[in-house]
Structures are given as structure tokens and as C-alpha cells.
Write a structure and sequence with these properties.
This protein has helices at about 15-25, 110-120, 120-125, 165-180, 195-205, 260-270, 310-320, and strands spanning about 60, 65, 70-80, 85-90, 100-105, 135-140, 185-195, 215-220, 235-240, 250-255, 255-260, 275-280, 285-290, 300-305. It is α/β, with parallel strands linked by helices and about 325 residues long. It has one domain: Alpha/Beta hydrolase fold, catalytic domain (Rossmann fold, 3-Layer(aba) Sandwich), CATH 3.40.50. The strands form 2 sheets. Strands 1, 2, 3, 4, 5, 6, 7, 8, 9, 12, 13 and 14 form a 12-stranded mixed β-sheet that branches.
């Protein structure tokens, strides 16, 4: 039986604290967009909800990309089971073949578009013919209500006035819908997330393990009270020792208590019946490998030069890890 974590950490000190969190979790991260000089933003288009809608409503548009002729992309908007209007961007790199499904989640205060610009995954993954995933960039919630957009990762980071969205149900619906329209390899459904998005990846691995094969967490933390996966889920956690937003050693940021990076990955490893193994040092990075059952890989990669910013090295680590699945 899947146990869903209902407890959520709220921003107890109101709007002032909300701005502090945005400043730390979004603006600090925003230096990753210096390549295109775009500032991180929390704006979102308000999509009207139809109260009488009882069945999911889906509209989609496909736009051919001149840069990648074999790629199609578009945005899909749907009404989820909780009555909310949710959307996601999809980039199909499958070339019409059976392909893995890769969700990439933005951080607190971010958007799908910003995450796509920051991670630059589509171009990189398109260079790997053996992978060619269907990449999905979903939107969190709260922006339409004038709040910082976020994911409900159990104890972080939706504001207390956010609607009580069911993010797990949203991912279940996306997986089912995309699998019907595309040739998805259901044995290779992956979730990668940055910061609060990485925290959500941990939650999905624990509560939707029957569908999720592997996760990649960048500068996130394990924010759950319990984790009882129905089958083992592989994980790569990437973290910088210079991170002050989600501290490597753990601690409180803007009233939110984060576990240390080692506690995060070890708690998840234990839930998946894995134990700590050997470590490998290369230049400025250290990789810790966990001993797991066959077909399960859990790794932690850290560096004393990384902070809370998603860098190209993280994308390379993501690709290398997932290409082994």
C-alpha cells in the first residue's frame, strides 16, 4: 500500500518570510541563467477554472523546432482530479521509437520555461541516440494566486494560502496521458528536480514507486516523514558544499529545517534496502556509492566548488546516470 505524506511545512511568518525564501531559493539559483541574461521570475498566466468540469480536459499544441528537426514540442493544459488547471511542456526526442519518460521539475519560485532554459537538457539529450527521451517540464502550483510557484514536497515548500493541490495525482495523470499518446518505455520513467523540485522527486520516488524507476535530485533534500516504496527506486543526489539555500550540512533556512545531504540520501537508501559503500574522489568531486539489490543504483555526488546553482556538470551527471538505467 502506498502511503502519502499529507503534512506540509508552511511559511509561518507571512509575506515577509516568503520574500526571503524566494530570494534564497530562486534568486540565488538565478545566477545559472547568466548565459542568457534572463532574471528568474515567478509570473504565470492565470488560467480560469471551470467549476462544472468533471472530466479531465486536455488541449495541446505541437510546434516544430528549426534547431532540432526531429524534435516536437508543445504545451498541454488539463484539469486534474483535484479540480485545478495544471500544465506542462513536453519535448519529444523519441524519434517515434519507444523511449524513456523524463520529468524535469523547477525549484521554488521557478517555472517550467526557466527550468528548461537553465538545464539545457533537450539539446544535450538529443545527442544521445540510445536515450532520446520524452522530456516533460511540468508547472508547480501557486503562481496563479500571486504566490511563489512550488511543489508540495511534504515538509516544503507550499505557502499556507496555496490551494490544497494533489501533486501526486497530477503526476499519475501525466504519466497515463503521455503514455497513451507516445511510445513510453514504462520501465524507464524518471524524475529530475532542482531544489524544491528535487524534494518533490524524493516524494514521488517514495509514493509513486510503482511507476518511477529513477530520480535525480539537484540541491534538494529529503523532506518526508516516511518512505515506503513498493519497489526499489534508483537515485542520484547532486549537492554543493557551498549551498546556503539548502545547506549541505543541514540546518534552518527562512524557518524551514533541512536535513543534511548525507542524511537525505541515506534515509532514502535505507528505505530502498541499500547500505553505504565505497567512495571515489575525482578532482573537486566525491561520489559515494550505495550497495543495493540488482538493478538499483543510489549515488551521492558532492563538490566543494558547487553552490545552489544548477551547472552543466549536473546535466552531464544526470545523463550519465540515467543512460545506465
Amino acid at each position: 500500500m502506498v502511503v502519502r505524506n499529507k503534512k506540509r511545512h508552511t511559511l509561518a511568518n507571512g509575506p515577509g518570510l516568503l520574500l526571503v525564501v524566494v530570494g534564497i531559493l530562486a534568486v540565488v539559483s538565478g545566477c545559472a541563467t547568466s548565459r542568457n541574461d534572463e532574471e528568474m521570475s515567478t509570473t504565470s498566466t492565470l488560467v480560469e477554472q471551470t467549476a462544472s468540469t468533471t472530466e479531465p480536459v486536455t488541449t495541446s499544441t505541437t510546434i516544430e523546432s528549426p534547431a532540432l528537426p526531429n524534435m516536437s514540442s508543445g504545451q498541454t493544459t488539463r484539469t486534474t482530479v483535484d479540480g485545478m488547471m495544471r500544465s506542462y511542456d513536453i519535448v519529444d526526442l523519441s524519434l517515434g521509437q519507444t523511449a524513456p519518460l523524463l520529468f524535469i521539475l523547477h525549484g521554488y519560485g521557478g517555472t517550467a520555461k526557466q527550468m528548461r532554459n537553465v538545464i539545457e537538457t533537450t539539446d544535450t539529450l538529443n545527442q544521445l541516440p540510445e536515450l532520446n527521451p520524452i522530456v516533460v517540464y511540468p508547472e508547480g502550483t501557486s503562481a496563479a494566486w500571486g504566490l511563489a510557484q512550488a511543489w508540495d514536497a511534504a515538509n516544503c515548500c507550499l505557502d499556507r494560502t496555496s490551494p490544497d493541490a494533489d501533486d501526486i495525482a497530477f503526476f499519475e495523470q501525466m504519466i497515463d496521458e503521455i503514455s497513451k499518446k507516445h511510445n513510453v518505455d514504462t520501465k524507464r520513467i524518471w524524475v529530475a528536480g532542482w531544489s524544491n523540485g528535487g524534494m518533490m522527486a524524493y516524494r514521488l520516488a517514495c509514493e509513486l514507486s510503482e511507476k518511477i524507476d529513477a530520480i535525480v535530485v539537484g540541491a534538494g533534500a529529503y523532506m518526508l516523514d516516511t518512505c515506503r516504496p513498493t519497489r526499489p527506486v534508483s537515485a542520484l543526489h547532486i549537492h554543493g558544499e557551498l549551498d546556503v539555500a539548502v545547506p549541505y550540512e543541514g540546518g534552518s533556512t527562512a524557518g524551514i529545517l533541512f536535513p543534511s545531504t548525507r542524511v537525505s540520501i541515506e534515509t532514502f537508501a535505507k528505505a530502498n534496502s541499500c547500505t553505504s559503500g565505497e567512495s571515489k574522489a575525482e578532482q573537486n568531486t566525491v561520489t559515494l556509492f550505495y550497495i543495493c539489490d540488482k538493478n538499483t543504483n543510489i549515488e551521492l555526488v558532492t563538490s566543494n566548488t558547487w553552490n545552489h546553482t544548477w551547472v552543466n556538470e549536473w546535466t552531464e551527471l544526470l545523463i550519465n546516470f540515467l543512460s545506465r538505467r
